[in-house]
Design goal:
Elements (H helix, E strand, L loop, with lengths): L5 H9 L2 H11 L6 H15 L5 E6 L13 E8 L2 H7 L12 E6 L12 E6 L11 H10 E12 L10 H9 L5 H11 L8 H8 L3 E10 L4 E9 L15
Parallel strand pairs: 1-2, 1-4, 2-3, 4-5
Antiparallel strand pairs: 5-7, 6-7
Helix pairs in contact: 2-4
């Protein structure tokens, strides 16, 4: 595996063989879950925006839960830090509905793994960024480099206002004070509230993504698990500089 960060090592330790098997079994139970269908429809729509065959990277693919939602795909690459999850992704849910011409599964840390520049038309990540791994400018710079001109980055995050995020006293006070602040003080407080990308709201996503990408759509989705942000951004320029993210005690 590519050099692992703390985040990658945590993911690898969490998704053991037993956990991965349970996770894959749960995939078969999701067909009737509204949020799962919404994510699948959203991803299908992103694919159809291209109107041609595309090469795709699933960033943190897990068990290949969303492979069948992709359309018009030439090569599909699934990247994950857990070998056990990739073993399950070799036999993903709704495998007979997958239309990708070729699938390649790669073990690696999404923060440090290297792909050649301009390898993909679409990079997507569902349930990973600002949930298990920080969303920061380093991630966006990496993805921008991997995308071809006109390529898209589609991803979900957990909003810091999600009911699933623990409400500490500091977080509650900080959230109440944020609308009354401005300038550098507001930016510093907001950075604390999102945990340097451990969570991500619309403002943090815009700060991370633009530039080098241009946001096409940015919306919220309230699911049974979290309040999510769903973003689709397009490559229209050169990549930027990345940065290190991490969760704090807020």
């Amino acid at each position: 595996m590519s050099h692992a960060t703390d985040w990658g090592r945590r993911a690898e330790a969490l998704y053991t063989t037993a956990y991965a098997r349970k996770y894959r079994v749960h995939d078969d139970e999701l067909r009737g879950v509204e949020t799962y269908r919404t994510f699948c429809d959203w991803l299908t729509n992103v694919c159809e925006r291209f109107g041609r065959t595309i090469d795709v990277l699933d960033l943190g693919c897990g068990t290949g839960r969303y492979f069948a939602a992709l359309t018009n795909v030439g090569e599909l690459v699934g990247l994950d830090a857990s070998a056990a999850m990739l073993d399950e992704a070799a036999h993903p849910v709704d495998a007979t509905r997958i239309t990708a011409r070729a699938i390649r599964l790669v073990r690696g840390d999404l923060l440090t793994h290297v792909f050649p520049n301009e390898s993909f038309d679409l990079v997507y990540s569902i349930g990973v960024l600002a949930e298990h791994t920080p969303l920061d400018r380093r991630v966006v710079a990496n993805v921008s480099g991997w995308l071809r001109s006109g390529g898209r980055f589609a991803f979900t995050t957990v909003d810091p206002d999600s009911w699933s995020v623990r409400r500490t006293v500091r977080r509650t006070v900080g959230r109440a004070a944020l609308p009354f602040m401005s300038g550098g003080l507001r930016r510093r407080l907001h950075r604390r509230l999102v945990g340097d990308g451990a969570y991500a709201d619309e403002a943090w996503i815009r700060d991370c993504v633009e530039p080098p990408l241009t946001i096409e759509s940015l919306e919220r989705l309230d699911s049974e698990a979290h309040l999510h942000c769903l973003c689709v951004a397009r490559k229209t320029g050169q990549g930027g500089q990345g940065g290190q993210g991490g969760k704090d005690g807020w």
